[in-house]
Structures are given as C-alpha cells and as structure tokens.
Amino acid sequence: MPGEDSIDRIVDDAVQALLRRQAADGHWVFELEADATIPAEYILLNHFLGTIDDGVERKLANYLRSIQGDDGGWPLYHAGEANISASVKAYYALKLVGDDIDAPHMRKAREAVHKLGGASRANVFTRISLALFGQIPWRAVPVTPVEVLLMPRWFFFHMEKVAYWSRTVMVPLLVLVSLKPKAANPRGVGINELFLVPPDQVRDYHVNPTGSWLGEVLLVADRVLRLVEPIFPQRLRQKAIDKAVAFVTKRLNGEDGLGAIFPAMANSVMMFHVLGYAKENPLFQTARASVDKLLVFDGDSAYCQPCVSPVWDTGLVMHCLMEAGVAGDHPAINKAATWLEEKQVLDVVGDWSSRRPHVRPGGWAFQYANAYYPDVDDTAVVVMALDRAWRSRVAGCTDFRRRGSIDRAVEWTPGMQSGNGGWAAFDADNEHYFLNHIPFADHGALLDPPTLDVSARCISMLAQLGIAREDYNLERGLDYMRKTQEPDGSWFGRWGTNYIYGTWSALCAFARAGEDMSAPHIRRAVDWLIARQRPDGGWGEDGASYWEHRKNEVKDSTPSQTAWALLALMAAGRVDSEAVARGVKYLMNLPRTGVQWREELFTAVGFPRVFYLRYHGYRSIFPLWALARYRNLRRGISSTIPWGM
C-alpha cells in the first residue's frame, strides 16, 4: 500500500481544511466558474440598462483579459480553442468598459473572430444580444413571438416541452424579442469591426441546426412567420406578455432569482425594465439583486458565476468526510444534515408536475432556493448522505425527521422516472427531439432527456436504501444503463467530463445494486478505464470529448477525473490492482494546499459542446474521497462499499 503514513497525513490534513470551510449554518459552497460569456453578459446588462458600474466592470474586464486564449479568442473551457460566441461577447464587453480596439489583446481578439467567420456566425443567443444593442438587424434573430405562450399543449411548440433552463430563460426573452427594445448603451459603443460583411448586408444569419429536412421546413416556416407577425392582434400580444410576467413573478424566487441561473435572471431584469418597471419597484430590485449576488471578487479581478451549488456541494462534502472517518453524528455532519433537511422542497408543486401530476414533491434543488425546479441528481446525493449519517448515528438516537425526509424523496424520485427506464435531471420524458430542428435551437441544449449519470445516481440511492433488485423501477433503470453503454465499454457523462464521469457513475450504481461485477459489460468498462490511464498514473479527459470525432482527446491528468476513475475501479473490486496503486500515488504526489489539489482544467458541463463548468470544489472533494476509500478498503475498515457513491 503506497505510503500508509503519508495517506493518513494527507487525509487528516484535508479533512481539517474541509471542516474549516463549513459555513456557520452548516453548509458548504464552492465557487462555480464558467466561460467568458457570463461576466461579459453582466457588463452588457449594465450597459443595456444604462446602470454602468465602472469599479465592478474594471474588475470583470481584468478577469476577461486573464482568460483570453493564446489564439486571441475566448474558449468554452480552460485551454480550449476560441469560440465565436464567447469571443464576440467578451470583445464587446471589453470595448464597453473602454478597452482600445488597437490594444494588442483587442487586435488579437478581432483577428480570431474574423478567422471564425465574423460576428454574424455567432449563435442565436449572442445575436439576440447584438440586436438589442442595435448591432445587427432583428431579421438576424429567429422569429419567436411571445404569443407562443398562449398555444395549447398539443401545439408543435409549448413551454412544457422544453427543459427547465430553456423555459426560464425563454419566457422573459420572448418579451424582449417581441418588443425589440434598444439598449441604453450610454457610451454608444458598437462592434462593426467584428463583421466581415456589414451586418445589414448579411443574408445567411439563419442556418438549419441539424441539417435535416425538418430543419429546412422550419426555416421556411420562420420566413412565413416573419411576414405575418406584424399583423398579430395587439390584444393577443398583451395577453401573452401578461402571461410571461405572471410566470416570471410567480417563480422569481426572491434574491435567488428566476430559475436560480444567470441567463434567466438577467432576462427577467431586462424584461421588467422594458415593460416600464421603475428601478425602485420591488420586483425589479429583487431580480437585479439576484444577479449581483453571483459576483465573485478576488482583489482587482472579479467574475460572475452562472449559478451557485450549495446543496450539491454540501451533499458531496458529507459523503467525502464520512468516507474519511468523520462520524455520522459529528457536529459538522449534523449541522449539514439539518441544513439540507430544511432545504427539501415539500410544499411547492413545481413545473415537473406537468408530466407527473400525481407525484408529491420531495426533492432538493441545486441552489440555495429554486423550489419550482428540484432535480433528482441532487436529491439522490442528498438522500444517500442523510441515510449514511442516519445509519451511523449515536446508538439509541432516532431522528424521525431525517427518516421522513428520506421517505418523501424516495417517493418523489421513482415518480420522476422516464418511460425508457432512465432519469433526466429536472423533468420526466422531456424527449421532444423534433424541437432541436427549430432555428432557435442552434445551441442544441433545448431539452432534458434521461442521461446515464443521473440515472445511475437514482439507482445508487434506491439500492443503498435497501430497495430490492427485483423492484420495477430499479430493474428498469439497470436495464437502461446496460443499453446505454458505449461500444468501447464506457458510459457517456452528461453533467461531468465525460466518459470517466459516466463510467464512475455507472460502476458505483451497478456495484451497489448487486450486479455481477465480473460480468462482461463490467469487465469492458474496467478495461476501458485502465486503458485510459496516463503515463503519470492519473486520468484526464478534455471538453472536446463531447464531439464524437474528438472523444479520446485529453490535455492533462486532473485530480477530480483521476478520483472518479479510482472510485470506479474500486467499486468494481479492483482495489488491489496496479492501476489503482498508480492512481493513488499520482494524487498523493500532486501539489496541494490543505484540501485544494491544483486543477485548472474544467471537468464538468452545463451543456455539452455549448457551456462548460469548473466546480472549484471538485478538486477538494473527490481526491480526498478516493484516497480515504482506498485506505478503508486496503486496511479492511470495510471489505465492500455499502454506499451508492
């Protein structure tokens, strides 16, 4: 066993550092970083409203300059290649702040945008921003009239047919696109220099997002709708706007914001502004405060988070600490459990109920508050953590409240299972794939279909709680997992990068559900993981792996992805393998400060190929978890893994 004393020192040191990070009320939260688009959009929001804050924006600009790629553009993830939409927004934000277009970094950025085809090639959301600032004509934006909110459920497009994030972003955005306001833009800043052809002369803004015949038909429909939209009755438009406002107001979510995600929050602020709500209006103030709370400051630099992840972080930290030997009745664990119990959504029937009207609420959301949008992934992680703590409580102590929380979640989660046996994050049976063909859907992130990683977490939860393998929901879920295995033995990771994350999720679920871990599909997964180990002993996987022709790309090993691979191999019974020993040695030798292993690369996603994430907590949580589990298994503290993760 590699350096037993060294493992003890690392684990003990990391545990103490993690305990010190706990908030007074019991939760943990780490920073959540995305690409350049979110801080750039914050600056654009200020200039749209005419509420420029030079002090904050200078710090955001410092951050944007610091993450500019060597190729001059801005990537979707650390060390990636330039992305046209991120680069256009970052350039525009820096110019709004006052950067000289002849400065070296701006010249390089402009050249990068030109190489990518010019600003007219940006995606729909970016083109909407440019239209709001008068930089391109509104005909560059697909026709998305707010009147679609009045359509019946059977209609081709309905808000209940798209994912929660699409719904919350689109409802206020429909008001903006329909009213076509113009940004205040007090400094009159434009970006004509980013276009290869003057914006008014571009004739090919709209493309078929999928290349299919249906996409071509819908492009024709867009042109027809553009002709008839001006004659829509004003009465219907006002009725639709009123419905949009009612939707947003009902789900405003206090200062945690609409959908608790930045794009929806920012759109709600702009919607209220365009509709004439004064800045002193409580609704406007609440919406604006939700955006400002996402800012993170570090000296002369600042960025804006896409959202926050306290429930997810707290659940994962609880698992990690208990794996490392912190007792289930330790004050820190008890405080965290109490905090989580109070965050459970029990009384709000969210949007998910449109597909599951007879299921009682009982899940957890990702953020501090997002009652209309709990998700089964967070719920499964939290339930497994609460169950783990509950089962290792002080002898004789019976915490009925905790057991009640678990029971409600176990009622809600199976109720959210989709027809194919899998689970999506926020909705059931959200598989209206024909919507991917509409011109608005060029980002490819409109839907929330079932995914392997979320399904695996639900199966892990049910199995950990003692649900029999023959249970209908469990068996359907296991069958879904077997069917979604890739030909090479891996599983796709929707919410973590990528096949390593998916394979870790799957092997943990199979192991806890009692699958034969010597079965051919398990052996193929193990062989794939071992084959992907790098010469340094670690594992890594690039954000580019979400493109099929680049699925094997890797820039470097990372602590979090190495930890996932180790946890997966240990779940498959390979704790004594050479691969695991090498991976453990890699983690032990990495630079580390307290509980923070050094990790710059992004290892998570919001939307594959579109929006990537860097969870700052992953480099703290997962390496410690893997080392602690290795120590436990090798020392016989546990001969098997009784937990779902």
Major sheet details: 3 strands, antiparallel
What is the rounded distance between the termini? 23 Å
> What is the average of the pLDDT values?
94
The number of strands is 7
Radius of gyration: 25 Å
Strand order of the largest sheet: 1-7-6
Summarize the structure.
The chain is 47% helix and 4% strand. The chain is built from 22 helices and 7 strands.
Short descriptors:
3-stranded antiparallel β-sheet; single chain; Glycosyltransferase; mainly alpha; 22 helices; 2 domains; 645 residues
Question: How would you characterize this protein structure?
Answer:
- By secondary structure, the chain is mainly α.
- The protein has helices at 4-20, 37-49, 54-66, 84-97, 104-115, 124-132, 164-179, 213-228, 234-250, 262-274, 282-292, 310-323, 331-343, 376-391, 400-415, 452-464, 472-483, 499-512, 520-531, 559-571, 578-589, 618-634, and strands at residues 32-33, 295-298, 301-304, 592-593, 596-597, 604-607, 611-615.
- The chain has two domains: 4-30 and 309-436 and 450-634, Glycosyltransferase, CATH 1.50.10; 32-304, Glycosyltransferase.
- The chain is built from 22 helices and seven strands.
- The strands form three sheets. A three-stranded antiparallel β-sheet has the order 1-7-6, with no helix packed on it. The protein has a two-stranded antiparallel sheet with strand order 2-3.
- The longest helix has 17 residues, at 4-20.
